[in-house]
Design goal:
The complex is a heterodimer of chains A (161) and B (653). Chain A has helices at 3-33, 40-45, 50-54, 135-141, 153-160, and strands spanning 34-38, 59-65, 71-72, 78-84, 89-95, 107-115, 118-125. Chain A is an alpha+beta fold. The radius of gyration of chain A is 23 Å and the shape is elongated. Chain B is α+β, with helices and mostly antiparallel strands. Chain B has helices at residues 2-30, 33-36, 39-62, 69-74, 81-86, 92-112, 119-143, 167-182, 184-196, 201-232, 243-268, 272-294, 308-332, 347-377, 387-404, 407-410, 419-442, 447-477, 485-510, 622-639; strands spanning 383-385, 512-518, 523-526, 529-540, 544-555, 558-563, 566-570, 576-579, 581-583, 588-597, 611-619. Classes of the chains: A alpha+beta (161), B alpha+beta (653). Strand 1 (34-38) of chain A pairs antiparallel with strand 1 of chain B, so a sheet runs across the interface.
Chain lengths: 161, 653
């Protein structure tokens, strides 16, 4: 092998090794830092998985803040409310300042984990304008489902069976 | 009547753009000078027409013409006059019009300042820019018409999103777009070079200032956005790894890599193919950013409303631009000549390392941003990628970059004995380490991060100073060893990195924050400051009612400042906005934001009870933006180097 080829071979070898290390690192970092979005019905039904229901896994809870569910003890930072997806409700507790656009009957995404039937939130997001529902929440809830009497593809599929 | 004129102007601009593409490109291929000569006047005419449309839309806003749908949706009779001008780019349609205007502006600038280039090159470059312009103008006209009428006219507008009613928002989008769109110039040159099948160092020299200026504007735009998020969102953070932030950060990273590889290609002829590829990547990522922001596929503060037709249009456009240019690259790049050979220890190698690291960082951000979309499409569930992913990988990739940075300018092209730059920098490395150790023991908290920040910053700064010293000394000894604007620009930008590192790492390490309930008259101590909550009263703004808090900040018994954090409720739509009270300083910001009243909702006098209050002390946070400003300045100063504009000598490298 001439020196040029040899150098090229080493170069390619180094590139392959670097790429392998990078892929592993990225995969690991991704694995550890992704959070799934579930709705209350999925959590309660158990279709979100054992880890979510038991509180082992952190996840994002999406839905609407249920009407007349927001409570806060006088002078306390601890807020309690219920998140609904039209089918089921889940109580949520959060200590801290809620975002500006947090309102009853509006979309919300909370990050946290389950603790004995209550969702303990570390972070609550509601950062859109007043008419906007985050697309992922809308998708999950079937948006029109049970609210305006519009059938979702899921309904049609259920009927067909 | 006027809005229709705007519409007509846009359609005419589209026709002119068609002309600007077809004739010059065909003329360049066939060598017809008269066809190629169309390019310049067409570029100017296009700018004039798009400017007309933009002015018409602005007039509609200032005159409050609520019969125009876009105006009715984004303005209100109570909106202050200043914001009527900026509301023009406050939502989707208008911001796309601004995109088109800035593109036309860059095209006209290229037409004006390209007289030293061969006609064939100018014709091709302007033709390709026209092609991009066709894409954006038809996007505007067919999917997001800013002049669509609303009949019958609305009596009152819906108001501009309160988040955007802010001085920072006046200049953030134009700066960002100047950067985004500015990458069209290196892109057009790269594609022109591919069509031609060879890359002339003279043309490359001509494009370098354009890349630098575009990158400088992009830096300023991103910094302004970060600053705005810091004081307007009320969370006290300056970077959230939000998909839209990432969308602007990816072209920035690719652009930074492009700046460096262009320098190597221009001076040594190395990495020709790679430079072309980066130019394509930087612009494609700008387009991708637009797609991500505008199509509503991502959940973000910037996503206005999802419209599948728009998303599909941009996706197709994106596929044509990226697919077409990559295909051309695959066909033509092998024809490029090889540059001068270089040894393993040379400035070329260091620049290559710089490029590999920056591009990897860009790829990592791209992956993290698109992974949720990919998972959704594959039915793997709705997921989001958390900031720790970006934080960890970014740290891993940027550490070697920072370590290698001071070596670059001090290493010679082609071949260098590794011992030379090592010997030059060794004492400074020791000094940087010592300062890191001192910082470790002085830091009140977060010792490791503080030490890392100080050591890294000192290393970059001292290494840069060492370079300046070497250069100034040789400038005195040798007649041709000038300290050029190009070197000054590099020095400024690298100093900017040092300043940024201090800000980013020290604010992370030393930040103290608390969220707590405070009753009027109550005090709290935090980070050496005492905060006395004086209560809240109601004030009336032009288009909002605000709960205005009063917080007296003292330090060692001395009054520092009286802060007024606000909670504004806007008249139309009832949207609530937090306006943080900030006492800025070079070494620390004191940041107070008002949460919500904690008293019972039935309490008639809600201002008398306790309020949730968020207090931050943010040391060195301003250095983040100061560093970004220095980097941008570096880009601009480099662009002023007269070498780039000198009459090119014959012969290519």
């Amino acid at each position: 092998m001439n020196p040029v080829r040899k150098r090229r071979l080493w170069f390619i070898l180094a590139l392959v090794v670097a790429a392998a290390i990078a892929t592993t690192l990225v995969a690991m970092a991704l694995q550890r830092n992704i959070a799934y979005l579930y709705t209350p019905a999925e959590v309660l039904r158990g279709s979100a998985g054992e880890n979510v229901a038991s509180g082992a896994a952190k996840f994002r809870l999406g839905g609407m803040v249920a009407a007349n569910s927001f409570k806060r003890a006088d002078g306390s930072m601890q807020a309690r409310f219920r998140v609904t997806d039209g089918d089921a409700e889940l109580p949520v507790v959060y200590t801290g300042i809620l975002p500006d656009l947090f309102r009853e009957n509006q979309a919300v995404i909370a990050t946290g984990r389950m603790q004995g039937g209550t969702f303990v939130a570390e972070q609550v997001l509601a950062k859109h304008d007043e008419t906007y529902v985050p697309k992922e929440v809308a998708d999950k809830m079937g948006m029109a489902h049970q609210k305006h009497g519009v059938r979702t593809p899921a309904d049609a599929a259920a009927d067909a069976r | 009547m006027l809005p229709e004129l705007g519409q007509v102007a846009l359609i005419l601009a589209l026709l002119v753009a068609l002309l600007q593409v077809v004739l010059p490109l065909a003329g360049a291929q066939r060598g017809k000078a008269s066809w190629m000569a169309v390019a310049r006047p067409a570029a100017f005419a296009q700018l004039l027409l798009v400017l007309c449309a933009f002015v018409v839309l602005t007039i509609s806003f200032v005159m409050q013409d609520f019969s125009v749908r876009y105006v009715a949706e984004n303005s209100n009779s109570l909106l202050p006059v200043v914001y009527r001008y900026t509301a023009v780019w406050g939502a989707h349609e208008g911001s796309q019009l601004l995109w088109a205007l800035i593109l036309a502006g860059w095209t006209a600038a290229v037409a004006e300042f390209s007289h030293k280039l061969p006609d064939v090159v100018v014709a091709r470059v302007l033709g390709i820019m026209g092609l991009v312009s066709i894409g954006f103008l038809s996007f505007l006209i067919f999917t997001s018409d800013p002049f669509a009428r609303l009949l019958p006219a609305a009596a009152e507008g819906r108001d501009l999103n309160p988040l955007l009613q802010d001085p920072g928002m006046i200049i953030h989008p134009p700066m960002l777009y100047l950067g985004y769109v500015g990458f069209v110039v290196p892109f057009a040159f790269a594609v022109a070079a591919l069509i031609d099948g060879r890359m002339d160092a003279r043309w490359l020299r001509w494009t370098r200032p354009w890349t630098n200026v575009a990158w400088g504007f992009l830096t300023l735009g991103i910094a302004l956005g970060s600053w705005w998020a810091y004081y307007e969102l009320g969370w006290g953070g300056w970077w959230f790894w939000d998909p839209v932030e990432n969308a602007s950060f990816m072209p920035w990273l690719a652009g930074a890599a492009l700046l460096h590889s262009q320098a190597a290609t221009e001076k040594r002829g190395s990495f020709r193919g790679w430079t072309v590829l980066l130019a394509i990547a930087a612009f494609s990522l700008s387009l991708l950013g637009t797609f991500l922001v505008r199509s509503g596929v991502l959940t973000s503060v910037h996503a206005f409303a999802a419209d599948p037709a728009r998303g599909l249009f941009i996706l197709i456009f994106l596929a044509i631009v990226i697919g077409g240019s990559l295909l051309l690259y695959a066909l033509r790049a092998p024809r490029f000549e090889q540059g001068a050979p270089f040894a393993a220890s040379s400035r070329e190698t260091l620049l290559l390392a710089n490029n590999v690291l920056l591009v990897s960082a860009c790829g990592m951000v791209l992956l993290g941003t698109l992974y949720p979309l990919l998972a959704d499409a594959l039915g793997l569930g709705k997921i989001s990628v958390g900031p720790p992913y970006f934080g960890l990988l970014f740290l891993l990739l940027m550490t070697p970059l920072v370590l290698l940075l001071p070596f670059g300018p001090l290493t010679r092209w082609q071949r260098e004995q590794p011992s030379k730059p090592l010997a030059l920098l060794a004492p400074w490395a020791v000094l940087a380490l010592v300062s890191g150790i001192v910082a470790y023991f002085l830091a009140p908290q977060g010792a490791w991060k503080t030490a890392a920040g100080i050591a890294a910053s000192a290393w970059v700064l001292l290494g840069t100073v060492r370079f300046v010293w070497t250069r100034l000394r040789s400038a005195r000894l040798k007649p041709n060893g000038r300290f050029t604007p190009e070197m000054l620009g590099m020095t400024l930008a690298h100093t900017g990195i040092a300043v940024f590192l201090v800000g980013a790492l020290l604010v992370e390490a030393q930040n103290v924050q608390r969220e707590l309930p405070l009753k009027p008259g109550q005090s709290v101590e935090l980070g050496g400051y005492a905060f006395r909550f004086e209560g809240v009263d109601e004030t009336q703004g032009p288009n909002y009612v605000a709960d205005r808090g009063h917080v007296q900040v003292t330090r060692n018994g001395q009054s520092v400042v009286l802060l007024h954090p606000e909670k504004r409720e806007y008249a139309s739509g009832g949207q609530v906005m937090t306006e943080a009270g900030i006492h800025g300083g070079l070494f620390a910001d004191v940041y107070v934001a008002l949460g919500e009243p904690l008293g019972a909702a039935s309490d008639p006098d809600r201002t008398a009870g306790a309020w949730a209050v968020r207090i931050h002390i943010k040391p060195f946070v301003r250095w983040i933006w100061l560093g970004a400003v220095l980097m941008a300045l570096g880009g601009f100063v480099t662009a002023t180097d007269r070498r780039f504009r000198a009459k090119p000598a014959e012969g290519s490298t």
